[in-house]
Amino acid sequence: MRSILLDPAGTKPADPSDDDLEALLLIRHFELALLELYSSGALNGTTHTCLGQEYIPVAVSALLTEADFVFSNHRGHGHYLARYRDPHGLLAEVMGREGAICAGVGGSQHIHRDGYLSTGVQGQSLPVAAGLALHLRRAGGGGLACVYIGDGTWGQGAVYEALNLAALWRLPLLVVVENNGIAQTTPTTSQMAGTIADRALAFGIRHLAVESSDVAEIRDVLADPVELVRLGDPLVVEFATHRLGPHSKGDDVRPAEAIAAAAAHDWYARQLRDGDQRFTELDAAARDHVQQVVAEVAARPASVWQDAS
């Protein structure tokens, strides 16, 4: 199965609903706030933002239920916020403050909550997701395991072991590939032979290619294929997307034209350029909300685990 969903050249995507726009803007301003906090020295460690890719988890999350389990990766703040809308808990986790999701020991990359797990280890989530999908299939109830991976993750053997079992055992496994064309600092064209579509096909697993950033359109196309996943027909959904920022905080080695191309595909810049009053108001509200979250969380005492260290 190789369906292609395109944004026709020059065609403006439909305006997102208020709820979708609020989620998109929450993620955008949260990520920008994190970069500012790191730049000011208020945070330690590292972080990987999903700037430019926010629409993917926002579109996918609406197709998931409470019975589903989400597996995220190192670039997972948007995955978490799209599912839970919990900027206070996430920022407290990253800052090591009271009220953190995992008491501040997981930081930016390693987060666990009921129905959610992220890891910074490339490829680690997929075999774990396959195991959880097996449990969900046996338990009944129509739950699925949704795992987000990047194009660089296809260099890990665990990916293929998990796909093999997913196909053999007909697991309710949804693999969402955020293909931003670069694996850390290496262009995908320099490190991947063939295509992701062909790799899925080798296991007899359906593949759906998405080039749109229209949240409603994406959901409309994915709705029926995702329901088939619940019946034990695994699916790989590959989003051709664009990473606006660096791999981490400041390691962007892409040529200027690649950075410009990514910026040209930015959903936020397009909405801003259109000058819609509704967007302007929701954008300002989201920015103010995130600033309030930062001020409130920064004023909290350190978590018990942070004090102990």
Provide the descriptors you would attach to this structure in a database record.
13 helices; globular; Rossmann fold; alpha/beta
In total, the number of domains comes to 1
Radius of gyration: 19 Å
Stretches where pLDDT is under 50 for at least 5 consecutive residues are none
* Mean pLDDT value: 87
Q: Kindly estimate the percentage of residues that lie in beta strands according to DSSP.
A: 5-15%
The CATH homologous superfamily name equals Thiamin diphosphate (ThDP)-binding fold, Pyr/PP domains
Helix segment tally:
13
Sketch the major β-sheet: 8 strands, mixed
Q: What is the share of helical residues?
A: 40-55%
The end-to-end span amounts to 51 Å
Secondary-structure-derived class = alpha/beta
Please report the total strand number as a whole number: 10
Identify the CATH architecture: 3-Layer(aba) Sandwich
What spatial form do the alpha-carbon principal axes imply? globular
Do you know the CATH topology?
Answer: Rossmann fold
CATH class: Alpha Beta
Strand order of the largest sheet: 1-9-10-6-5-2-4-3
User: SSE order in H/E notation?
Assistant: EHHEHHEEHEHEEEHHEHEHHHH
How is this structure best summarized?
The chain has 309 residues and is α/β, with parallel strands linked by helices.
Description:
The relative contact order is 0.18. The protein is globular and about 50 Å long. The protein has helices at residues 18-39, 55-61, 77-84, 87-95, 125-139, 157-168, 188-191, 196-202, 215-230, 256-264, 267-274, 277-298, 304-308; strands at residues 2-5, 69-72, 112-113, 116-118, 145-150, 173-179, 182-183, 186-187, 206-210, 235-240. The termini are far apart. α1 packs across α12 and α4 packs across α12. It has 13 helices and 10 strands. It has one domain: Thiamin diphosphate (ThDP)-binding fold, Pyr/PP domains (Rossmann fold), CATH 3.40.50. β7 and β8 (186-187) form a beta hairpin. The chain is of the alpha/beta class and 309 residues long. The strands form 2 sheets. An 8-stranded mixed β-sheet has the order 1-9-10-6-5-2-4-3, with helices on both faces. Strands 7-8 form a two-stranded antiparallel ribbon.
